[in-house]
Amino acid sequence: MKVGVLGAGTMGAGIAQVASQNGCEVVLVDLNQDMLTKAENSLDKILVRLVEKGVVSEDEKINIQGRITYSTDTKDFKASNIVIEAIVEKLEVKHAVFANLETIVSDDCILASNTSSLSIASIGSALKNASRVVGIHFFNPAPLMPLVEIIPAVQTSKATLDASKALIDSWGKVTVLCKDTPGFIVNRVARPFYGEALRIYEEGIADFATIDWAMTELGGFRMGPFTLMDYIGNDVNYAVTESVFAAFYYDPRFKPSFTQRRHSEAGYLGRKSGRGYFNYAEGAVQPEPNKDMVVGQQILDRILAMLINEAFDAVFMQVASAEDVDKAMTKGVNYPKGLLVWAEEIGLKKVLSQLETLFTEYGEDRYRPNPLLKRMAK
Ligand SMILES: NC(=O)c1ccc[n+]([C@@H]2O[C@H](COP(=O)([O-])OP(=O)(O)OC[C@H]3O[C@@H](n4cnc5c(N)ncnc54)[C@H](O)[C@@H]3O)[C@@H](O)[C@H]2O)c1
Domains, the chain, ranges and CATH? Predict the structure, then answer.
């Protein structure tokens, strides 16, 4: 299999590594020679570490490196069976790039995009033969995160979908099938993890440290929402929230938060700027959570009910199967349990009643319980 990867940044370099580790011949193209050199050097360091750990042998290391060709010329994609694009997230740039790729590759070459937020249908519209377009959405870091969302557009042929899913499955990834809708599965269903946590803070119910404590200690999540937003970057996380909100025609369920916006505007971006919701300066004293079990449980129940409602909505609106929604959240963002399985454990009636209480109290559409949850609870 000959795999082209366009863009040698964070995602492209990782995808090229995965493809090569699985025996594919890879051509990695970037406009910027420095990015290619950086990708090559960083792969070398990663492989040295993997050899030291005994994960790959010295011979395998040499083969993995040997299977990747680095180039600044997209014409080198000529013999590719599939090209996966991972360049800047701008629709007009992707359009130009996809139109150009089609003039280079063979008629049956699949053209895939790793976009996080653009519609695959809109990207495919730049192609003469749009039946070859598909979304193949990896998670960062691509070599370590098992989940890949496979997104057929309205134009995608069954042959394109089947071949791309089979290829990514053969790389040992966990694939889930997802409708071409904003945020796909993970970036849609996970919104309340941030949004409801921010809302709870804004209402003065608890501070950042207490909300994080409730979600990690009582909920079993690996990171609390504020630590995670600081890790992702408040600018990046806020931009995703705003784009999902706009893409859903301003559905109040996805409303962004002023707190996050102000943190972002202030340059409190998180770890990368040394300060976000928490202070990452050397020697900074971290705030202690208020370990009140009653408050903690209320915080966990509220955020979890909102996440479960979102998971039900993804199934209700046929974005993905229940099984794939649960797989996506456990394999893509390390949730301790699938949200739908979790809902059954808690009891659907109980989750519904929590949402109904919020809906009645606030009168906001944001808290409306999903019809599928209502039906199933009944
Ligand atoms: N970073 C993430 O966590 C993440 C996760 C999943 C998906 N994505 C998506 O993957 C894509 C890439 O994101 P990233 O974080 O790797 O970006 P990045 O900025 O790290 O890398 C982008 C690379 O593309 C190159 N590039 C830009 N325009 C180009 C062109 N016309 N031709 C060739 N190369 C070009 C740049 O030189 C750069 O090396 C985006 O669509 C993004 O939405 C990102």
Answer: 2-177 (3.40.50.720), 187-377 (1.10.1040.50)
Angle at 326 between CA 120 and CA 213, to 5 degrees: 110
Q: What residues are labeled active site?
A: 116, 137, 149, 187
Residue 246: band (very low, low, confident or very high) from pLDDT cuts 50, 70, 90 = very high
Q: Ligand 1, from 36, 72, 88: best to mutate by most atoms within 8 Å of Cβ?
A: 88
Query: Is 97 close to ligand 1, i.e. is its CB under 6 Å away?
Result: yes
Residue 1: which of 57, 84, 120, 96 has the closest Cα? 84
Give every CB contact of residue 27 below 8 A, 6+ residues apart in sequence: 2, 3, 4, 5, 68, 69, 71, 76, 77, 80
Tens-digit pLDDT profile for residues 115-131: 998 999 999 999 999 99
Task: Tell me the CA–centroid distance for residue 89 and ligand 1, in Å.
Answer: 7
Q: How far is the CA of 180 from the centre of ligand 1 (A)?
A: 20
Of 285, 311, 298, nearest to 372 (Cα)?
A: 311
pTM over 0.85: yes
